[in-house]
């Protein structure tokens, strides 16, 4: 049992350097996110967002350096299976792997095994089934329990993946470009789901290049460029036209209504 998890920052990275092959993907990267925050990490393609996600999920590791540390919920080392009980992941990599005959229920159950389907070596008991059904019901997608993922729309499959991430009842969810490749209706559905989760007390870390993904409940925005944090603060202070134009390297216009921002 992790007794300090509730009191420690959800994420505490200090002066990280992470390599992807011979390339420095994150450099002198520092970021702290508390367990009760809703935070958006915004940046253009190639800025290091994917590497940051893989560092959080322990697929990438930083170079050992003096005055550098990486902690999740107060701990430098984690069994990744136990980490998923505290932080659910909804990633594009996972979306690409969930394309087979597995049903919605099986995909949600696979969250207990860090897989994307149920295999013969997996033991599914009544308690796991109960939790999977509850996660499907929470997302209002119980009707997808028996449907194969290959017969779902992209929006339906994305919501099943969110249910999969929720099956452990984690305190936080990490969303990686959650509306990528979705039509307008599916985008709205996913964003409504993020809002409901944030209002229910689940901490949200959103990693995106789409300003429209930043739902009103997200109060803090972190801007990334070239593997570093270049701005961090209140959403209203960070989301300014001049700053975003410099970040994305183009002239932009921005509109804001009811706490949501749109860029074009």
Strand order of the largest sheet: 5-6-7-3-8-9
Note the run of SSEs as H and E: EEEHEHEHHHHEHEEEHHEE
> Kindly, what is the distance between the CA atoms of the first and last residues, rounded to a whole number of angstroms?
47 Å
Percent of residues in helices comes to 25-40%
Determine the strand fraction and express it as a percent band. 25-35%
Mean pLDDT value: 91
- Report the principal-axis shape: globular
Q: pLDDT below 50 for ≥5 consecutive residues: which ranges?
A: 1-5
Number of strands: 11
Biggest β-sheet: count, sense, barrel?
A: 6 strands, mixed
Structural category is alpha/beta
Radius of gyration over all CA atoms, rounded: 18 Å
Q: How many helical stretches?
A: 9
Describe the structure.
The chain has nine helices and eleven strands. It has helices spanning 49-56, 80-83, 92-97, 104-109, 126-138, 154-166, 184-199, 235-238, 241-248, and strands at 11-20, 23-33, 38-42, 69-72, 87-90, 172-176, 203-208, 220-225, 228-234, 254-257, 260-263. It is globular and about 50 Å long. The strands form three sheets. A six-stranded mixed β-sheet has the order 5-6-7-3-8-9, with helices on both faces. A three-stranded antiparallel β-sheet has the order 2-1-4, covered by helices on one side. The protein has a two-stranded antiparallel sheet with strand order 10-11. It is an alpha/beta fold and 264 residues long.
